[in-house]
Q: What sequence folds into this?
């Protein structure tokens, strides 16, 4: 490996956000998931969660190829679940707060959130949004303010807008510098070693194995 490539990987690991993630519930279009992964990788996420509870959504549908994810699949881990409780037990074990994109009475605007804290951001599917079963696991809800006639955004666009507001806040707080507080030195070293291993592994279109 050329020294320049090693330094590139090391600098990316230094900026990874170990306390920020995305949960996608019953997102039907694999292209939307791929686009979400591109945004997640760009902002510095280490992993995302994909939750499928609808019977027609199976792991055979969840093929994250090169075109839509543009290589992000190689660097962002996907935790795939079909059980709501098991999924959020995993999320809660690593992230302090769970926020959903849901238009409820107590929903706040995206730009009023503190996204420098340890947080999982939940996005529902293209038609029904977040289910009641998943809303029960959310500590709060937020909306993205919109000024046009069409009061909805594509799921991948909504996720990108939200993640880049998180990036703005976290960069202002110094999270993308050498004193990044979201991962320990040991976690960064382990991730560096894993990314060095992945560097030589050819990325392929493939399904994501279900956890539970």
A:
């Amino acid at each position: 490996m050329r020294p320049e490539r090693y330094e590139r990987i090391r600098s990316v690991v230094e900026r990874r956000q170990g306390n920020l993630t995305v949960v996608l519930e019953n997102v039907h279009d694999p292209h939307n998931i791929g686009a979400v992964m591109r945004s997640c990788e760009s902002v510095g996420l280490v992993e995302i969660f994909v939750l499928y509870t609808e019977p027609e959504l199976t792991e055979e549908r969840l093929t994250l190829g090169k075109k839509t994810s543009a290589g992000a699949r190689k660097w962002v881990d996907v935790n795939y679940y079909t059980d709501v409780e098991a999924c959020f037990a995993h999320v809660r074990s690593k992230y302090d707060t769970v926020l959903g994109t849901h238009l409820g009475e107590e929903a706040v605007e995206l730009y009023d959130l503190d996204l420098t804290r340890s947080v999982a951001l939940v996005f529902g599917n293209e038609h029904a949004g977040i289910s009641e079963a998943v809303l029960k696991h959310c500590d709060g809800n937020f909306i993205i303010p919109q000024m046009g006639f069409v009061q909805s955004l594509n799921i991948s666009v909504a996720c990108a807008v939200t993640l880049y507001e998180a990036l703005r806040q976290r960069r202002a707080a110094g999270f993308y510098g050498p004193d990044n507080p979201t991962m320990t030195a040991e976690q960064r070293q382990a991730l560096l070693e894993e990314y060095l291993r992945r560097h030589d592994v050819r990325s392929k279109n493939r399904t994501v194995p279900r956890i539970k």
